[in-house]
């Protein structure tokens, strides 16, 4: 499954790159893209694990970039 989400308050391209690199390391993430210009996160994960993976992505993103929120 692949879904896109709006990002709120991602401050710079470097922050987006750092966030993307760390999220890509999570177990269950098939692919992830964080685009600073469009303020969008695109996540791909197995259908049966997607909600669990998304929850871990949201939690890790909050730790890495506390001001950034993933709008679901």
UniProtKB/TrEMBL annotation:
Keyword Ubl conjugation: no
CDD domains associated with the record: HMA (cd00371)
A Pfam family hit: HMA
Domain HMA: 1-69
Keyword Metal-binding: yes
Entry keywords, A to Z: Metal-binding
Top-level taxon of the source organism: Bacteria
PROSITE patterns in the record: HMA_1, HMA_2
Molecular function terms from GO: metal ion binding
Protein name from the UniProt record: Cation transporter
Organism annotation: Thermophilibacter provencensis
């Amino acid at each position: 499954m692949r879904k896109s989400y709006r990002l709120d308050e991602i401050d710079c391209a470097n922050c987006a790159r750092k966030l993307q690199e760390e999220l890509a390391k999570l177990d269950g993430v098939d692919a992830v893209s964080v685009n600073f210009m469009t303020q969008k996160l695109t996540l791909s994960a197995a259908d049966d694990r997607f909600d669990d993976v998304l929850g871990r992505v949201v939690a890790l993103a909050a730790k890495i970039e506390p001001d950034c929120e993933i709008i679901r």
